[in-house]
Amino acid sequence: MTYRQVPEASIYELDPGRSSISFVTRHLFGSAKVTGSFDLNHGRIEVGLPATTSKVHAEADATSFRTKIKLRDKIVRSAMLLDAEKHPSLTFQSTEVRLEDGQWVLKGDLTVRGKTAPVEFAVTEAKTTRDGLSLHAEGVVDRYAHGITAGKGFAARRLKLDLAVHAVKVVS
After folding, report:
1. From its phi and psi, is residue 4 left (phi > 0), alpha (psi between -120 and 50) or beta?
2. Does residue 103 lie within any of the structural domains?
3. Rounded to whole angstroms, how far apart are CA atoms 34 and 12?
4. Cβ neighbourhood burial of 102 (10 Å; 0-12, 13-18, 19+)
5. What is the per-residue pLDDT for 164?
6. Structural domain that includes position 164
7. How many CB atoms lie within 10 A of CB 56?
8. pLDDT of residue 27
9. 3-state secondary structure the chain
10. Which residues form the Lipid/polyisoprenoid-binding YceI-like domain (predicted)?
11. Is 151 left (phi over 0), alpha (psi -120 to 50) or beta?
């Protein structure tokens, strides 16, 4: 199945154990790369006919933010940035699915730290699996759009998200 094809119209539950949310950003005034990840809590994909009526909802765990530096992780999870204690979830709700220049695009609202802003993900791969479907998507999140402005210069404004999602078909 190519990314232009559409999986079977059905409901699929995201499988957190076989899914990942990773990111790449910069710090130290853009001089160094930072990679890290979040854990997916749960989510659902409703593939519709036509595909443009499909819907996605997903929730990630803000307290699971991790890079390879524990002190940085603690600071990012703190009230200064993610405020994960008060806002333990990052949520995505799709608002549009469209085919653009031969590639599926998923547009939606991302809520971080209680503030919602639009985001788009390009679906770079979609394939059926024995028990559901597997998707890969990429997008860029502007942390300032979510009111996370502390650390200007030290931490980049944008994060590139890489989503590798496995979803299991719900049997009705």
Report:
1. alpha
2. yes
3. 32
4. exposed
5. 98
6. 10-169
7. 23
8. 77
9. CCCCCCCCCEEEEECHHHCEEEEEEEECCCCEEEEEEEEEEEEEEEECCCHHHCEEEEEEEEEEEECCCHHHHHHHHCCCCCCCCCCCEEEEEEEEEEEECCEEEEEEEEEECCEEEEEEEEEEEEEECCCEEEEEEEEEEEHHHHCCCCCECCECCEEEEEEEEEEEECCC
10. 11-168
11. left
**Alpha-carbon gap, residue 86 to 82, rounded angstroms:** 9
Give 99-142 pLDDT, tens digit per residue: 999 899 999 999 999 999 999 999 999 999 999 999 999 999 99
Q: Which neighbouring-strand residues pair with 131?
A: none
Q: Is the pTM of this model over 0.85?
A: yes
Residue 95 within a domain = yes
pLDDT band at 155 (very low <50, low <70, confident <90, very high): confident
CATH code of the domain covering residue 99: 2.40.128.110
What is the Cα–Cα distance from 164 to 172, expressed in whole angstroms?
25
pLDDT in tens, 24-45: 998 766 578 999 999 999 999 9
